[in-house]
Design goal:
The structure is a homodimer of 240-residue chains.
Chain A lengths: L8 H5 L10 H9 L2 E5 L7 H6 L2 E6 L2 E6 L5 E7 L4 E3 L10 E4 L3 E6 L1 H10 L1 H27 L2 H15 L3 E3 L2 E5 L4 H8 L3 H13 L3 E5 L2 E4 L2 H8 L9
Antiparallel strand pairs in A: 1-7, 2-5, 2-7, 3-4, 3-6, 8-9, 9-11, 10-11
Helix pairs in contact in A: 4-5, 6-8, 6-9, 7-8
Chain A binds a DNA duplex (30 and 30 nucleotides) through helix 8.
DNA sequence: CGATTGTTTGATCTCTCTCAATGGGCGTGG
DNA sequence: CCACGCCCATTGAGAGAGATCAAACAATCG
């Protein structure tokens, strides 16, 4: 389940994002105190790892932050895609919420000191890290608004666009293929909906001919502008 | 409405947070390209300012990010207290959401380049800024969970604790005085509730003897542990 | 191939929204 | 100073969106 270092991250270095900014000696330094972990789906990262190495770099798969109430209700407040940095350090008190793999996920975890030292000496890495974390703030703000003021159909439409923005997706003759990287029940936890409502919502969007659902984990967007109008609060029963 | 520089920030420098990390020459550099603005309640920051100086440092008052749907529904996805840094730069596309003063608010705004340059040369300022922005991510995650899975009473209880954590508050003989820095209608927009529901909820918490409401903008917490249990999802009608 | 987990559909319930109306606080202007 | 208007808080009654409950079915996995 855990490797000895961060060699794997070099895979990512050739792709995009944070690791690309690192010099080989910096990767070496990070590797010394890092750990590469493969987390099976539905398992969460243990507290000890979080305490010792609170900086997580997603390599593969989807990782979510799951919160739980005392009566068992649980929700996913955010999710992370490959290349994302998750900084679990928290000023006051401990982190509320667990890191959970929504799909089988691979990631590197770093201790805060080593990570900060590397950033301090590598401005471009610092810049990319700041950019990634800043983007998370804006995504979280959008998501909070979605949860606060949108109806189920609107939330689902927004979620489809969020998946589009955050993932690889393919387009062909007017249709856009979007990979939904998690189960419907996880979508529900993320959108503050029950899985039944997620199912009914997607089906309703399909009935309106805005999307097609070849399988639960894939969505083909047939009418982007109309779907966007739904996401932005237009009544779907009105023309346009 | 707008001053010529950021001299006012020196007030803050004597207090806490980001400005305290700055050398006087850095303050000078920032001042040259910054602007101090006093925003009356319910007014929002114009797009031009956001485009030119997307980094905002709250000095006084409460600032919120307000989003609006095409049918007029609006919500506040986050709010900021004095000392907070708001970084409105966004990787893809423009910022969704407006900066709105929830109380009369004073702040400084900086252009991105100057701000980044100062941070690049001042690691401790960089560190404080990162810490502030990181905290925003966690606050946003907590808030998303609140909106997604909590009932109105639970949201209000959580909100009271959020106000407690983010503000000055006074305690006396077992009671905690908490200043609610915004109107009930703003609380509603922030919590995804209607103002009527906010009113009913606070009143219900008062009926349960968890809080006392001397006036709309002040809450006295009488039973912290029980209120915390409500915030964490315990049924308020059960004993304990 | 059995067991567990996830998806779907239908029926009912409930919490919150919506609508409507009243009263209070505050600033404005006479 | 008071009158007026505006915004906000509050209360009540009703409606509706989504939760909940239940059951069948599909998918995944050991």
């Amino acid at each position: 389940m855990s490797g000895t270092g961060c060699r794997r991250c070099r895979l990512l270095a050739s792709n995009r994002g944070f690791c690309r900014q690192l010099q080989s000696d910096e990767i070496e330094r990070l590797s010394l105190n890092s750990r590469s972990t493969l987390l099976p789906r539905k398992t969460s990262l243990d507290c000890q790892t979080i305490a010792e190495r609170p900086i997580v770099l997603t390599i593969e798969g989807i990782i979510g932050i799951q919160h739980t109430l005392s009566d068992g209700r649980s929700g996913i407040s955010a999710f992370y895609t490959p290349g994302d940095i998750i900084d679990l350090r928290r000023r006051s008190g401990s982190v509320r919420g667990n890191l959970v793999a929504l799909t089988p996920a691979q990631f590197c975890s770093f201790d805060a000191e080593t990570f900060d030292n590397v950033l301090k000496q590598n401005p471009s890495a610092q810049h990319v890290a700041s950019e990634i974390l800043r983007e998370q703030i804006h995504l979280a703000a959008d998501h909070s608004f979605d949860l606060g003021k949108k109806r189920s159909l609107e939330r689902l439409a927004s979620f489809i666009f969020e998946c589009q923005n955050r993932q690889r997706h393919t387009a062909s003759n007017g249709s856009i293929n979007i990979e939904v990287p998690m189960r419907h029940c996880d979508v529900g936890e993320y959108l503050g909906l029950q899985p039944e409502t997620v199912s009914r919502g997607f089906r309703e969007l399909a009935r309106l001919k805005l999307i097609v659902l070849p399988e639960p984990s894939r969505i083909v967007v047939k009418n982007t502008s109309k779907l966007r109008r739904v996401a932005n609060g237009a009544r779907s029963d009105l023309p346009g």
